[in-house]
Amino acid sequence: MGFFKKLKEKFVEEPMDKAVEESIQKEESKTIESDDADRDEGFTENLEGETETENEEELESVEETEGIDEHLEEFDETEDDENQEGQPHDPEEVEDKEASIASKFKTGLAKTRNSFTSKINDLVARYRTVDEDFFEELEEVLISADVGVNAVMEMIDELQMEVKRRNIKDTRQVKEVISEKLVELYYGDEDQGEVEELKMNPDGLTIYLFVGVNGVGKTTTIGKLAHQLKADGKKVTLAAGDTFRAGAIDQLDVWGQRAGVNVVKHSEGSDPAAVIYDGIQSAKSKKADVLICDTAGRLQNKVNLMNELAKVKRVIEREVPGAPHEVLLVLDATTGQNAMSQAKTFAESTDVSGIVLTKLDGTAKGGIVLAIRNELDIPVKLVGLGEKVSDLETFDPHAFVYGLFADMIEEEDDET
What we know:
Layout lengths: L2 H9 L6 H16 L2 H4 L16 H23 L12 H18 L1 H17 L5 H13 L4 H18 L7 H14 L18 E6 L6 H14 L4 E4 L8 H12 L2 E3 L7 H14 L4 E4 L8 H18 L6 E7 L4 H13 L4 E5 L9 H9 L3 E5 L7 E3 L2 H19 L1
Parallel strand pairs: 1-4, 1-5, 2-3, 2-4, 5-6, 6-7
Antiparallel strand pairs: 7-8
Helix pairs in contact: 1-16, 2-5, 4-11, 5-16, 6-7, 6-16, 7-8, 8-9, 9-15, 9-16, 10-11, 12-13, 14-15
């Protein structure tokens, strides 16, 4: 069975309802028309700590706080529809969930797909046979999608070998092989098909530690995750450990209030480790299932920040053996290779266990997902595919590739 056929059977068993299809098309249209600059939450820091404005942190706080209401309106609209029991058990519910995930990835990756697919189709149209020139241009297409130079070189080598093995001559047949290799590139030598969910502590309190520079959507992601965990029946506590940035505590507090979860906070400038300690004690006393810890993200004081994070981590380890159960690094997909640089910096200084990639719907270079996984060997755990509370999704490489090749997959199906 062809790989496109497998993806279609996995995610789109039944033809989509016309109303759903129209809804997806409208969302894609909005996504394509929206300017990347409108989605930027004030991220202007680079690894050397340079800023484009002297008052960046104050501006960032105002912009993020003003945007909270847009996200939080979704709480009231979705709360009654959430499955309070967590994961679906009925096979039909599982199929419906997979179809929903597929449509979200299709909509969320509209910018990347429209850029990537058009270039692939153009390449296939210009070459009748698979030769060295074809692979050289394909290499440029993949690099332009931010898949990463090292990852692309590895993929091209494997693709050439696979084309020879299958004796593929027609360039149209290469599209399907490319999709296969993208999935293999993500998984590497690991068992394919396993979606890496967030770890949960079966014996008590689960602690997630969020790290990342200012402006990448860290606090917003924490709010969305808190809402989703509560909808799954979990009791959640938030710890406002970002005591450095003006407005960060208030921002997290607003998210907590609207999500209906407990927020532990101190005054601005307090010791973050003390906040996290109190958060742990509060979570224990309230018999919470999950504690989510926010942290500061100022890279201009890199040494101080990393020492601070190390101290926070020691407190967590001391109070809850085996914790934190996830150290999640939040990156902004729209910053491209700058996100890769941030990932390397944090990976060197903290034990990052997973990546949260925000604003994937706001970039035409979604290949950064594969670059991060390939170069750093850190799994992408969550991705932001939109601005709604429900648009934070567990990353599924097969759904990701489906989102990239959805148009080609449907064309293939029409032809057969």
